[in-house]
Design brief:
308 residues, 10 helices, single chain, elongated, alpha+beta, three-stranded antiparallel beta sheet
C-alpha cells in the first residue's frame, strides 16, 4: 500500500513539473510575447473584421514604410499614399501567409531612406507613418481572401484582364478604362540592330534584312491592345521574350517601318494589369477616396480590417 502511495506521489510531482515548470521558466525569463502571433477569431463581432492567424508586428509597419519610400513620393496626396499603404499591407500579408505569387518587392532600409531623402527624411517618414496609421489594419479582400494586389506604372488607357497576363482567371483583375493613362514612348532601331538582337537571343532564327517588314507579323493581341505573340522570321516570340529582346516597357506597341529603321511606339509602362499607379494618383488628386479607387481597379473587392 505504501509503495502504491509513493508511486502516486511521484506521478503527481512529475506531472506538476511537466505542466508548470516550463510556464514558470518562460515567464521568469520574460520570453512570453503575445504579439508574435495574433488570433483574431473572437476579437470582434463586426462584419468588417476578417479572421486570419498571421505573424503581425512592427516588422509589417517597417516594411510598408520601406515600400512606400521606394515606390511613392511622400509629397503625393494623402489619399494616394493611403491606397498604396493598403496595397503593400495586403501584399505583405499575402506573402507572409505563403500564398503570394507576385514578384518580390524590396523595401528601403532606414539607411537607404536617409540617403534618399537627406534632410527631409524625418518629414518623409512622418508622412508615410500617417498614411499607415490612417489605414491601420486595412487590407483588400475578394471572397474574404487576400487578393494579389498587382499594379503597374501606367496602362495604355485601358487595363488588362488577369487571364491575358497570367493565363488563369482572376475574377477581380478585369479590364477597366484608365483615362489618365496617355503617355507614349518611342524606341527606334535600325534593321541591322533588330536582326542582331534577334540572333543574340534566338541563335537558330532564320531572318535577313531584305524585306524585313514582310518577315514580321503580329500573331495575337488581347482585348486591351497588348501584343501576346509576334513573329520575326522563323521565330515566334511570346510577350515576355518580345519585351526582353527589344528592351520595351510595354507590349501595347505600334510597329512603324521607316526606311531602314523600325520604330516601336509604346503606349503605357508596365504589364497593364491591376491598378494603374498613374491614374490612381490622378483620381486621388481630383478628390476620389482610396477605397473608391481600389474597388474600381480591383473588381468586386472589399476593404476590411484585420484586428490584432
Amino acid at each position: 500500500m505504501k509503495k502504491l502511495q509513493n508511486m502516486l506521489l511521484y506521478f503527481f510531482i512529475l506531472f506538476g513539473s511537466l505542466i508548470f515548470l516550463p510556464t514558470f521558466i518562460v515567464l521568469l525569463g520574460d520570453q512570453y510575447n503575445k504579439n508574435i502571433l495574433f488570433d483574431i477569431s473572437n476579437t470582434s463581432n463586426s462584419d468588417d473584421v476578417i479572421n486570419f492567424e498571421l505573424s503581425y508586428n512592427n516588422f509589417i509597419q517597417d516594411q510598408i514604410i520601406g515600400l512606400l519610400a521606394r515606390e511613392v513620393n511622400y509629397t503625393e496626396s494623402m489619399e494616394y499614399l493611403k491606397l498604396n499603404a493598403i496595397i503593400f499591407r495586403t501584399y505583405l500579408l499575402k506573402t507572409q501567409s505563403g500564398q503570394g505569387i507576385l514578384a518580390k518587392l524590396f523595401p528601403l532600409s532606414i539607411d537607404e531612406m536617409k540617403k534618399k531623402f537627406g534632410d527631409n527624411y524625418e518629414q518623409a517618414y512622418s508622412v508615410y507613418l500617417e498614411a499607415i496609421n490612417a489605414t491601420e489594419d486595412l487590407v483588400i479582400l475578394y471572397n474574404d481572401e487576400l487578393i494579389e494586389p498587382v499594379y503597374h506604372t501606367e496602362s495604355s488607357g485601358k487595363t488588362r484582364n488577369g487571364l491575358d497576363v497570367y493565363g488563369i482567371q482572376i475574377d477581380y483583375l478585369k479590364a477597366v478604362d484608365s483615362p489618365f493613362d496617355t503617355s507614349i514612348t518611342e524606341l527606334k532601331y535600325t534593321d541591322e540592330q533588330i536582326i542582331t538582337k534577334l540572333r543574340n537571343n534566338f541563335p537558330n532564327i532564320i531572318i535577313n534584312n531584305q524585306y524585313l517588314s514582310d518577315q514580321i507579323q503580329i500573331i495575337e493581341v488581347d482585348n486591351s491592345g497588348y501584343i501576346k505573340s509576334i513573329q520575326f522570321g522563323s521565330s515566334i516570340l511570346d510577350e515576355s521574350s518580345f519585351l526582353q529582346t527589344f528592351g520595351l516597357t510595354s507590349s501595347n506597341v505600334d510597329i512603324i517601318f521607316q526606311g531602314n529603321n523600325i520604330l516601336f511606339r509604346q503606349h503605357g509602362i508596365g504589364s497593364g494589369v491591376g491598378l494603374s499607379q498613374n491614374s490612381a494618383k490622378e483620381y486621388s488628386n481630383i478628390g476620389h477616396t482610396y477605397d473608391v479607387i481600389l474597388k474600381y481597379y480591383y473588381y468586386n473587392t472589399e476593404i476590411k480590417k484585420i484586428a490584432k
